[in-house]
Amino acid sequence: MSLLNVQNLTKKYKNKTAVHNVSFSFQSGKCIALIGPNGAGKTTILRTLAGLLKPSSGTIQFEDEGANHDIRQYIGYLPQFPVFHSWMTGREFLIHSGELAHLSKEESKQRTEELLIKIGLSDEAGNERISRYSGGMKQRLGIAQAIIHKPKLLILDEPVSSLDPIGRRQVLLLMEELKNEMSILFSTHILTDADEVSDELLLLHNGEIVESGSMDALRQKYQTAQIEVGFENDLEKYAEKINALPEVDTIQVERNILHVNATDISLTRQKILEVASDENWPLTTFHINRASLEDMFMRVVNN
Ligand code: ADP
User: Fold this and answer.
1) Which SMART domains match (predicted)?
2) Which residue, 220, 243, 265, sits at the end of a domain?
């Protein structure tokens, strides 16, 4: 059985449906990115899974869920805007969080030391007040607090979106390391972050999952490319010949460059180069322009 099964999850706020009929399952050991623009429903889904919001309808089921449906032991959750007791030191904060998660004082101290090393805040940093921490340090501390009780599933809401490049890199590296110990579900609106650490993506738009799968599978399915071919002159003549190739969908002419759109880019490239070589065309440029991940997302959403 999967670690987590979500069936037809719907969440309405008064008359606004934020999440509509969302279903997915989550195998143990995976890192899944929930990706979508602001307002897509990511926070609502994550808060519902974390037990902080009640679904309007649908079911959420965890593997081995006890009869009392207490899921807190399975889940660690870091909200998008975590609040810290900033007068505490990082070390004090983690010991306190461990006790709140029902660890004994000794267990909590021991786990705190383990985690401070893992998040790179051992030594002096652990004894500094949180008010002096950078955004990246706070986020890593927040992750440590979320996993103090060794949950099976770590839920992170936009863990890197607000960080500077260094903080972002450190948090992504930490997530990469944690993938070996637990399953991770995190939200982001930045595709490159999702691409970097996740095994699979759930693409969310207007509260619905519009596509899912590995980044490679999605690239295969949606990523398009365009071949740019440049000539010194006689553009119309070459455009006509390229357009006659059965693989070519459309051509746009821009100054002395032809922009060739085709579904099978590698075959089209081969065909154009064959004709160009046979007929000794005066090529000035030949370039393949791949669509960005953002373009790919727009294609999924507009499909
Ligand atoms: P995301 O995390 O993808 O930005 P949210 O889950 O925060 O999306 O929001 C989804 C939709 O639900 C948005 O249209 C948002 O305005 C609306 N929404 C979120 N929280 C509330 C609330 N407490 N009351 C009413 N509408 C809300």
Assistant:
1) AAA
2) 220
Distance in Å, CA 217 to ligand 1 centroid: 29
- CATH number for the domain including 140? 3.40.50.300
Model pLDDT for residues 222-267, shown as the tens digit of each residue = 777 789 999 988 888 899 999 999 989 889 988 889 999 887 888 9
Nearest CA to 153 out of 76, 240, 241, 225 is that of 76
**CATH number of residue 291's parent domain:** 3.30.70.100
Residue ending a domain, among 220, 252, 283, is 220
CA distances from 192 to 162, 166, 186, 240, 303 (A): 14, 15, 13, 38, 21
* Count of domains forming the chain: 2
DSSP state of 89: B
Mutation to probe ligand 1, out of 13, 185, 190, 210 (largest number of atoms < 8 A from CB): 13
Which residues line ligand 1 at a C-beta cut-off of 6 Å? 13, 16, 18, 36, 38-44
Closest Cα to atom 18 of ligand 1:
18
pTM for this predicted structure:
0.83
User: Residue 44 in 3-state DSSP?
Assistant: helix
